[in-house]
Amino acid sequence: MPRPPKILKPNETYTFTQYAELPYERDDILADLGCTLSRQRVELPYYMGALQLQALDDQLNDAFQFTTISSEQARREFLIAPIIAHVCRQTGQKVRVEYPLAVSGWLRGTLDYYFQASNLLIIEAKRENLYTGFTQLGAELVALSQWIDRDTPLLYGAVTTGQIWQFGTFDRATQHLTEDPTLYRIPEELEQVVRLLMGILSQQPTPMLMNPTLA
Question: Which superkingdom does the taxonomy of this entry point to (predicted)?
Fold first, then answer.
């Protein structure tokens, strides 16, 4: 039998964003959702084909130079959206933005960026806090795992502040979230971020390899 909840109250509802605001250890929060968490290097698909990133790099550098990146809206519009738009063009995949999802009273809200064909979630870390952002990501991946009916063993997720990206995976069979501790900075490590996103979205034997940083 599942253990009784320690944090979440049975008669209350919680939105995804609330999980980033709860003042408890994220292991305990996610445990109430039946999810375990570990922090270790993850073998992520890594696209090895040719890339044309100069225009995107210029756009991001212009954002840092000419825009005040001091709000969530600014980070979304000038730092996150251009990268997502680029990988959509390159892979031909569609992204659902602020996609509503309601699985239960504890699992409801909107998914910031959801690539349905590849089961990839990208969320913006509220208040630029990656730590609590991964708590929110875990809740959303638990909800997504319960919602989809495809036989997909692994779900992918990323948390970003706009300037920093971090990735993870969710094993549906074990309900386990793995947080990769590697942090990728924008614009300095733009290529790595794009190659990881395109690797996940492409999911093809070639020209995709595992992340060479793990070698």
Answer: Bacteria
